[in-house]
TrEMBL record, chain A:
This is DUF2269 domain-containing protein. Keywords: Membrane, Transmembrane, Transmembrane helix. It comes from Teichococcus aestuarii. The keyword Transmembrane applies. The chain crosses the membrane at residues 20-37, 49-68, 95-119.
From TrEMBL, chain C:
GO terms for biological process: electron transport coupled proton transport; oxidative phosphorylation; respiratory electron transport chain. Pathway: Energy metabolism; oxidative phosphorylation. Keywords: Cell membrane, Copper, Electron transport, Heme, Iron, Membrane, Metal-binding, Respiratory chain, Translocase, Transmembrane, Transmembrane helix, Transport. Residues 577-839 form the Heme-copper oxidase subunit III family profile domain. Residues 21-535 form the Cytochrome oxidase subunit I profile domain. Pfam families: COX1. The chain crosses the membrane at residues 38-60, 80-110, 122-143, 167-191, 203-225, 265-284, 291-311, 323-347, 359-384, 396-418, 430-452, 472-493, 583-603, 609-628, 660-685, 705-725, 737-761, 773-797, 818-840. It is a multi-pass membrane protein. This is cytochrome-c oxidase. PANTHER family: CYTOCHROME BO(3) UBIQUINOL OXIDASE SUBUNIT 1 (PTHR10422:SF35), CYTOCHROME C OXIDASE SUBUNIT 1 (PTHR10422). One of its GO terms (molecular function) is metal ion binding. It is an enzyme of class 7 (translocase). It catalyses: 4 Fe(II)-[cytochrome c] + O2 + 8 H(+)(in) = 4 Fe(III)-[cytochrome c] + 2 H2O + 4 H(+)(out).
Length: 125, 329, 841
């Protein structure tokens, strides 16, 4: 799997966390759009949708945490701080791990942001 | 050019309190007169002050960095700056702001009161239909009158192109999109005269698609609505020639004047034209002279409007029509 | 290499390199394809469009200087602001990124050229033709006039629009093709053409940005191209995708446009910030702090920018919960942007700053951009946007973002890189004046607009009444615009005439650490004397001996023994050398192909379909002729010595060849366009309670199951035949290869025919309703891909017969099969969507 048990970091492992964000975002948007467009009218109750969003948000956060674990391992568990600027296999691996870890953090926060509307909005008005 | 002078005069004629001071103006979101506009204006000032502080801090730090002499920061210190100032603090601030905005949204879209108003955007004017609770619909155009302190539910639609209905002093805008009916709730909080406009490019005369909004006490509103629902008052004898000319030239094919033979549905309803402060969808002061100019040279005053110019009619006839329209209170 | 000590030998090497890479003179100059020439033309052309679009902005400001002005008519005003926005976005902001990247990237990578020089040239000529066509229309009073986002139905209704809308759609579609071509070139350039040893963690930050932005172009432009196709089909053939009265929806266009339109903002912003990421370390005299953070910011912004598009549609009446997601993503994207800014500040704090004109512009950019970013955070809050949207507040916001985030960094880059490109520095004295004129002019023009907008002035109004609080604000804005323009003009004067009186700049004039400053100034046509092995992020700082070794030809590829243009191909992560790539030389073919392609678009605009078709065939033939003579060339030997004892193959196929990467990347973009069409189909499903709609007999419409079933089997058969053909070729059986190719052609034709028979035989009339139109467009798209597959397959067959496609030299078959993977996916998804989905719905 791209986010788990990879020996070496590469560009795909780097892109995995924001890709998880993108899929989560898309699922939330599509689910809401269908619920409201097919529901009929602005007063459709969205309780089910809000549970669905919670149901996709928790796995998304979980996957990002898994990816973050792997990234931390690629980074060497924090034993080597940046700049990672040597032309060695080790620095390349640590750089990719560290950058991926940062992207995990950003993706984690962004997934939470995107789920926030489900807390405050209960219908299709 | 004609347009310049008459438009300018129309605007001078509007009662514009506190015009050149502060954020005032009949069309200002910063001089709010509605619940939504007040909420948003308060939010804006808060965000502006916060932004100003952030801007000063960031730029101050940057200019300190550019001028600093002496020992450079350590790699570790500089990295910490990125973590805290670049990532952590902005994330927290944004989360708070986002949460506030998300809570505000459903509140501003809460259901309106019993009065519903349907507004339809046309190139380049506004068809207005009041649906009072329990009463028959009342047809009007280009001038809104609203009761203070009541949440009014607007339904917005269009048949030609996209328009956007915006009264900055009362609240945000909402698009009118062919095939859809959008809702908007406005709650005026003080009486006064305001101006709204079309906010989405809708053709050559997009800039000339405005309307007036008069917010009055509820009792006054009820009285006004009853007057607006009635047919046009009996014609004063002096103006009868104007009515005849209006009908003879086919104006009634497009315009309605209830109580006469004019039953057109293409242009604005003119039944109570004389009670509106402006003509031509908020662009000219409602005077006999301007009404005549509009009839004769609408193609110049309002490019691409669907109404043809009637400049070929004898001037006396145009003047008679303009005079008669002035009697429709 | 012991004999590189020999001066005579070195001279001979230099002479051979010079002859091989020589820029032609006289009228043949325009056949040049080398990045130094094409990049320069590209930059100059997009700058000219910038000046033109700026002049249009001055016209707009002149009209708005006073209330009730009648300087220009409503119609001309609408054309002016439409072209201003269109040109600034499509003819300046995106192309100048491509232009600068084409100029700079090879120097940063110490490559002699980008991998597909003729593709760059083709892209340039497409851009020039399309740009002149679109901008020229204003002189015939025929320019588009409905704003740069062209909302239907104002733009689709034939009663309301002239030919301007067609000019916009077709002219810009043509340019979008050029942008995607440039994206392919730049992505492959960054991934595969780095110097040996320049690993992914040591490549210059500019390359990271180019990589991300190239990827964004692949996912952002295709939805617009898909939208353009739907739009043109509605305008030219009456297919009602956006016509609410026939089952369409104008809001669909808004989705497709802004799925492009918002990433677009970051597509123009990131490459300019990338210039700052090169400039700041140079003047801080230290490596950047937070290299990984920049990568985070670029990648994070690249992704998040695709979740913002609805914030341009906050007032369309979508449900609040939908707005909420986009509001959230719009706030989230501020995080990586903030990180980016603090990386620069941190680097400045940890370094020893020296003053310079580029840094002055960088500081001005920061001041303006930070404010634009803060107002961006404001408008991302939907309730505030309901007031600000489509008002002058938004005009102010977007100019703060674009001028602070794109134009001023670009000017910083111009002052920084002028000596590299034009061999001379721009004047610092004039530069300061230019800066203050632009900086003050900008703020005087645009700061008041925040208040003009909140005082209720909508954008895109050709006039406004006096006395409602907008008069003074507008007059001040217009005065500021004049100051800003004066700054730009002064810059232009210095850039063209001012520098003539100055002496050449010394080598590496700013004392920078990155490879683009490796060469002597002015540099030779062939670029670096030899391609160095790289071991750090700032090789010129870390290895002071490097320029001498490079100059003495002690590094890789110091010669062009065979008189062929060559550059190195390396592996993606660690830049291990894997191939010595022969790149094609100067040719008029790209220009001819661009002219013919342009003719197709222009003739279609004027409804000259048959002539257009004839030119279309000619364009395809010209591209085939170009490919035949310029790609997958069979080298005279297997491998060659590139110096320092390394031997590399001259030919590589499959995943090891750059052509395979280009095909893969192009088809990724193609799939995005396809996905947008599928999105449109399902969008119609969401807005219609009954979908597919019922026909006259009360039965659901549809293409049936028989013909789509036949089409599916034949398409899968064609794909299988291609796989089989490739396997035969690998086994060395030319006969099997040809048989497989022939079978694929026949099956593809059968499949394409069956696809179109489905809706035809079932009486789906595309002008009646959006549903049949959507079915037709999906099937037409899939059939078109099969047709292109047929042409490619026949091309491979011809290559095989001509002996250019063999077991050893099999680039063509690998790339064509790669295409077929995508075509097969397209066919399967299309058929499942149009035939099976109605059964579920």
């Amino acid at each position: 799997m791209l986010i788990h048990n990879r020996r070496h970091a590469n560009l795909w492992t780097l892109l995995a966390p924001p890709a998880i964000w993108a899929i989560h975002f898309l699922l939330c948007y599509v689910a809401a759009a269908i619920a409201c467009a097919k529901g009929g009218g602005p007063w459709v109750d969205l309780t089910t949708l809000r549970w669905v969003i919670l149901g996709i948000t928790i796995p998304a956060l979980g996957l990002i945490l898994v990816a973050g674990q792997q990234a931390r391992r690629h980074w060497g568990f924090g034993t080597d701080d940046p700049p990672h600027d040597q032309a060695t296999d080790e620095d390349r691996q640590h750089f990719l791990g560290y950058a991926t870890l940062l992207l995990c953090a950003l993706s984690f926060v962004s997934v939470i942001f995107v789920a926030m509307p489900a807390i405050t909005i209960a219908d299709c008005r | 050019m004609e347009q310049r002078t008459v438009t300018g005069r129309a605007m001078r004629a509007m009662p514009l309190a506190g015009l050149l001071t502060g954020c005032g103006g009949v069309q200002s979101a910063l001089d709010p007169a509605g619940f939504e506009a007040e909420q948003v204006a308060r939010l804006f000032w808060a965000m502006l002050i916060a932004s100003g502080v952030i801007w000063v801090l960031v730029l101050g730090l940057a200019s300190y960095a550019a001028r600093r002499r002496g020992q450079p920061w350590s790699q570790q210190g500089a990295s910490r700056l990125i973590v805290w100032a670049g990532a952590v603090v902005p994330t927290l601030l944004l989360a708070v702001l986002l949460f506030y905005g998300l809570r505000l949204m459903p509140e501003l879209r809460a259901p309106g009161g019993p009065l519903r108003v349907h507004v339809e955007g046309e190139q380049f004017w506004w068809r207005v239909r009041y649906h009072p609770p329990g009463g028959a619909p009342v047809e009007s155009a280009n001038a809104l009158v609203l009761p203070v302190g009541q949440r009014v539910e607007f339904s917005l639609s269009t048949r030609d192109v996209i328009h956007s209905f915006w009264v900055p002093a009362l609240g945000g805008k909402m698009d009118m999109i062919p095939g859809r009916t959008n809702r908007l709730v406005l709650e005026p909080t003080r009486t006064g005269e305001f101006r709204g406009a079309c906010a989405e490019l809708c053709g050559a005369s997009h800039a000339l698609m405005a309307f007036t909004v008069r917010v009055v006490e509820p009792a006054e509103f009820e009285a006004w609505l009853a007057r607006e629902a009635a047919p046009a008052a009996a014609v004063e004898p002096a103006a009868q020639a104007g009515e005849a000319a209006f009908l003879a030239n086919g104006c009634g094919a497009c315009h309605s004047v209830r109580g006469t033979a004019a039953r057109g549905d293409i242009g604005p309803d003119l039944t109570h034209l004389a009670s509106r402060p402006t003509i031509g969808a908020g662009i000219l002061e409602n005077s006999a002279e301007n009404r005549a100019a509009f009839i004769a040279r609408v193609d110049q005053i309002k490019p691409s409007a669907r109404m043809p110019a009637y400049g070929t009619l004898p001037e006396t006839e145009i003047a008679a029509i303009a005079a008669w329209l002035g009697t429709l209170r | 290499m012991p004999d590189s000590e020999d001066a005579a030998r070195r001279k001979a090497q230099e002479a051979r390199l010079e002859k091989t890479w020589e820029t032609p003179s006289g009228w043949r100059y325009w056949s040049a394809v080398n990045n130094t020439e094409v990049g320069l033309w590209y930059t100059a052309t997009s700058f000219l469009f910038f000046l033109f679009a700026g002049a249009l902005a001055l016209l707009v400001r002149a009209q708005l200087a006073v209330p009730d002005n009648d300087l220009i008519s409503a119609s001309l005003y609408n054309q002016a602001f439409t072209l201003h926005g269109t040109a600034m976005m499509f003819l300046f902001a995106v192309p100048i990124f491509e232009a600068v990247a084409i100029l700079l990237l090879p120097t940063m990578l110490a490559a002699r050229d980008l991998p597909f020089p003729r593709l760059s040239a083709y892209g340039y000529w497409c851009f020039l033709i399309g740009g002149v066509f679109v901008m020229g229309s204003i002189f015939f009073n025929a320019a588009p006039d409905a704003g740069w986002f062209m909302y239907p139905p104002l733009t689709t209704d034939p009663k309301l629009t002239g030919i301007g809308a067609d000019i916009w759609l077709l002219g810009l579609s043509f340019i979008e093709v050029a942008s995607i071509a440039a994206a392919v070139e730049l992505i492959v350039g960054v991934l595969k053409c780095r110097p040996p040893g320049m690993r992914i963690n040591t490549m210059p930050l500019y390359c990271w940005y180019v990589l991300i932005v190239g990827g964004m172009i692949l996912f952002a432009f295709p939805p617009l191209i898909a939208g353009d196709i739907l739009f043109e089909l509605e305008r030219l053939a009456g297919w009602p995708f956006f016509d609410a009265s026939r089952g369409g929806d104008p809001v669909l266009w808004q989705h497709l446009f802004w799925i492009f339109g918002h990433p677009e903002v970051y597509i123009v912003f990131l490459p300019s910030i990338a210039l700052l990421a090169m400039i700041v370390p140079t003047f801080a005299r230290r490596p950047i702090i937070g290299y990984s953070w920049i990568v985070l910011a670029a990648v994070g912004t690249g992704f998040l920018s695709f979740g913002l598009w609805v914030h341009h549609m906050f007032t369309t009446g979508l449900p609040a919960i939908s707005l909420g997601f986009f509001s959230a993503a719009s706030e989230a994207v501020a995080i990586p942007t903030g990180v980016q800014i603090f990386v620069f500040v941190a680097t400045m704090l940890a370094g020893k700053m020296t003053r310079s004109t580029p840094m002055l512009f960088a500081a001005g950019a920061l001041a303006i951009f930070v404010f634009g970013g803060l107002t961006g955070v404001m408008v991302a809050i939907a309730p505030f946007d309901w007031q600000a949207h489509d008002s002058y507040f938004v005009v102010a916001h977007l100019h703060y973002v674009l001028i602070g985030g794109m134009v001023l960094p670009l000017f910083a880059g111009a002052y920084y890189y002028y000596p590299l490109i034009m061999a001379r520095k721009l004047s610092d004295r004039i530069g300061r004046l230019v800066f203050w004129l632009m900086f003050l002019g900008f703020n005087i023009a645009f700061f008041p607009m925040h208040f003009t907008g909140l005082r209720g002035m909508p954008r895109r109004v050709f006039t406004y009444p006096g006395g409602i609080g907008w008069d003074w604000l507008n007059l001040i804005s217009s005065a500021g615009a004049v100051l800003f323009a004066a700054g730009v003009l002064l810059f232009t004067w210095d850039a063209i005439w001012g520098i003539r009186r100055r002496a050449d700049s010394p080598r590496n004039p700013w004392g920078a650490g990155t490879l683009e400053w490796l060469n002597p100034i002015p540099g030779p046509d062939y670029g670096v004397r030899s391609v160095p092995a790289i071991a750090s992020r700032y090789p010129l700082w870390d290895d002071p001996e490097l320029p001498r070794r490079v100059d003495e030809g002690r590094e890789y590829l110091p010669d062009a023994e065979e008189g062929k243009r060559e550059t190195l191909v390396t592996s993606v992560l660690d830049a291990r050398p894997i191939q010595c790539l022969r790149v094609p030389g100067n040719s008029f073919m790209p220009m001819i192909a661009a002219v013919l392609t342009g003719a197709v678009f222009i003739l279609t605009t004027f409804h000259l379909y048959w002539t257009g078709l004839a030119f279309g065939v000619a364009a395809i033939l010209s591209i085939l002729a170009w490919l035949w003579r310029g790609t997958a060339m069979v080298p005279e030997k297997h491998e060659k010595d590139i110096g320092r004892g390394v031997r590399l193959p001259l030919y590589a196929s499959g995943i090891r060849s750059v052509g395979w990467w280009a095909m893969f990347i192009t088809m990724t973009g193609d799939m995005t366009a396809f996905a947008s069409l599928v999105f449109s189909y399902f969008y119609f499903w969401t807005i219609h309670p009954v979908f597919p709609p019922l026909d006259a007999a009360g039965l659901p419409m549809g293409p049936g199951l028989l013909w789509p079933g036949v089409a599916l089997l034949a398409a899968l058969g064609a794909w299988g035949a291609m796989l089989w053909a490739r396997a035969r070729n690998t086994a060395g059986q030319a006969g099997g290869l040809r048989l497989g190719l022939l079978a694929a052609v026949l099956l593809a034709l059968a499949s394409g025919g069956a696809m179109l028979m489905g809706p035809w035989a079932n009486g789906l009339e595309p002008t009646t309703h959006a549903y049949p139109a959507a079915v037709w467009v999906l099937l037409g798209w899939a059939a078109l891909h099969l047709a292109v597959g047929v042409i490619m397959t026949l091309y491979a067959l011809a290559r095989s017969l001509a002996g250019k496609l063999t077991r050893e030299h099999d680039i063509d078959i690998h790339n064509v099969v790669l295409y077929w993977h995508f075509a097969a996916i397209t066919a399967v998804v299309t058929l499942a969507t149009v035939a099976l989905f109605p059964l579920l719905a």
